[in-house]
Amino acid sequence: MKKITGLCLVMGILFSSGVIAQQDTTVVQEVKQGAKNAGKAVGKGAKSAGKAVGKGAKKLGNKTAEVASKGFSEVKDKTYKGKTGPDGQTIYIDKHSKYYWVDEKGVKQYVAADQLKDKMD
After folding, report:
1. What is the pLDDT along the chain (121 residues), one digit of tens a residue?
2. Which pairs with CB-CB distance under 8 Å and at least 24 residues apart come from 97-105?
3. In a 3-state reduction of DSSP, which class is residue 55?
4. Cα–Cα dist 79/103, whole Å
5. Dihedral Cα 96, 102, 108, 109, nearest 10 deg
6. Strand order, beta sheet including 78-84
7. What burial class does residue 23 get, using C-beta atoms within 10 Å of its C-beta: 0-12 exposed, 13-18 middle, 19+ buried?
């Protein structure tokens, strides 16, 4: 009788542990899927934030270059008082008597004398 009771007890434990293990596996899979979804959402948020930061940094860099280049041109080169660029830009004259204006990225854009317009006050 003791053998039958012991055998039933062992069989019961083995059977119940299999059910518990299966339930644990399901819970673990659900937790993994939830963590995976959360990771994807965080990744998307970080990616869009990174793009926004990159755009802001690019704008800041361009504006810094423009201001620095214009300041350098103001000090180093002469400003043409009576003329403006095609879109009203300030015109500078370099040491070789060439006319140019500074664009929004800080790059000198050389123009011919016939492209200059009279300055309107």
Report:
1. 666 665 555 555 655 555 444 555 676 677 667 766 766 666 676 677 777 777 888 888 888 888 888 888 888 888 889 899 888 889 999 999 999 999 988 999 999 988 888 888 6
2. 100/73, 102/66, 102/69, 102/70, 102/73, 103/66, 104/62, 104/63, 104/66, 105/62, 105/65, 105/66
3. helix
4. 15
5. -90
6. 108-111, 99-102, 90-93, 78-84, 117-118
7. exposed
Interatomic CA distance for residues 96 and 114, integer angstroms: 17
What amino acid is encoded at 107 in this protein? V
Q: Identity (one letter) of the amino acid at 66? A: E
